[in-house]
Amino acid sequence: MTADLVIPADLLPADGRFGSGPSKIRPEAVDELAAAGRTLLGTSHRQAPVKHLVARIRAGLRELYALPDGYEVVLGNGGSTTFWDIAVSSLIDRRSAHGNFGEFSAKFAAAAKAAPYLQEPVVTSAPMGSIALPEPVDGVDLYAWAHNETSTGAIAPVSRIPADGLTVIDGTSAAGGVPVDISQTDVYYFAPQKNLGSDGGLWIALLSPAALDRVRRIAASDRWIPPTLSLATAVDNSVKDQTYNTPAVATLLLLANQLDWLNTSGGLAFAGARTSESSKRLYAWAEATEGPTPFVADPALRSPVIGTIDFADDIDAAWLATTLRRNGIVDTDPYRSLGRNQLRIGMFVNVDPDDITALTRCLDYLLERRG
Residues in domain Aminotransferase class V (predicted)? Predict the structure, then answer.
């Protein structure tokens, strides 16, 4: 294959960032960050300017999700990976049930299994590229799955399991780009480095009154919970518009700017229409072109924000990703442990649908010249 193939400039997207996280950040957010560099960065997170920033984020999320009465916006440091440990420490009472249909849903189940004070979790699994939801089980007090499985590009419905227990949803790659009814969840948690147009290292959770009650009850029990994994501690700090320990102020500022943009543009309806348009273009191209095929076979389960495209055996997807990168189109590689001959395309709300169309034209150009 041609090692240094140059894609004509008129075919290239205006912005070549298609990563599945971290993802494209809007220039306007970077501009606000630069403007605040001398006044906000490097200042105390316990003082009014940063607390006002946290308040802006909490208000923006409350507006974006039209939070029902009694729900609380809580945030802390560490990202969604940390939140699995927080949930194991502060949300699961005795036993959890998990839908496992990808790398990230499996990791939450593994964290629950490793906790010595919890019973063995119930895990309902499905092959990669499909979905699995937990089923009602006596004695289970928390049901968990991913809204959007970032590793495979499969999206699952979000509705309460008809049983006693909290419904806890990992919204990391869906949040801010896929509409959801938060009243169907007790905890909807995510990180801001995807649709929410910021950097990683922060977790955010939208907690129902039932979840808040659970958090308080476990915190008052004899279970030992490190302060950094205490959801009760995070709640107490969040209602004061601060985090328990020092946050990355730049991450907060980027997130606040993105929330302002989303809410003034039409909220989740706007975001969902934009990601749906991008994904429609990608999947239509894959179905109409010889060689590529959508990895998620069922169109109803195909993510609007993460597109995974398999390629025929005679097409080297790794070569495609490498050649795209040489031409300024970056981060289209598949998830590292999935082991498939595929590309994975981030179609988050900051990605212009026209850039998805341009990407498909670039792929057509490479496929015609790969020999």
Answer: 38-329
d(CA 143, CA 124): 11
**Residues 10-19: what's their mean pLDDT?**
98
258/26 Cα distance (integer angstroms)? 8
Nearest of 146, 144, 143, 113 to residue 130 by alpha carbon: 146
3-state per-residue secondary structure call for 158-187: CCCCCCCCEEEEECCCCCCCCCCCHHHCCE
pTM over 0.90: yes
> Would you tell me how many other CB atoms lie within 10 Å of the CB of residue 336?
8
Taking residues 261-271, what's their average pLDDT?
98
Residue 1 has pLDDT above 80, yes or no: no
Q: How far apart are CA 77 and CA 97, in angstroms?
A: 26
Q: 116 preceded by cis ω (within 30°)?
A: no
Residue 101 backbone phi and psi in degrees, to 5: -145, 30
If you search the block for the tokens 């049930």, which residue do you land on? Answer: 97
The pLDDT of residue 3: 62
CA–CA dist 254, 14 (Å, integer)? 21
Give the chain's radius of gyration (CA, Å): 21
Residue 55 parent element (H or E): helix 48-64
Q: What is the SS3 assignment for 267?
A: helix
CA–CA gap between residue 83 and residue 75 (Å, rounded): 10
Using a pLDDT cut of 70, give the percent of the chain over it: 99
CA distances from 204 to 27, 41, 172, 175, 246 (A): 23, 21, 9, 10, 15
Tell me the mean pLDDT in the region 198-207: 97
Structure-derived torsion over alpha carbons of residues 148, 333, 204, 135, reported in degrees to the nearest 10: 30
Euclidean distance between CA atoms 288 and 306, whole angstroms: 19
Which residues fall within 8 angstroms of residue 291, CB to CB, at 6 or more apart? 311, 312, 314, 315, 367
One-letter amino acid at 15 equals D
Tell me the three state secondary structure of residue 145.
Answer: strand
Candidates 371, 360, 303, 311; CA nearest to 7 is 360
224 three-state secondary structure? coil
- The runs of H, that is alpha helices, within 160-266 are 209-219, 231-238, 249-265
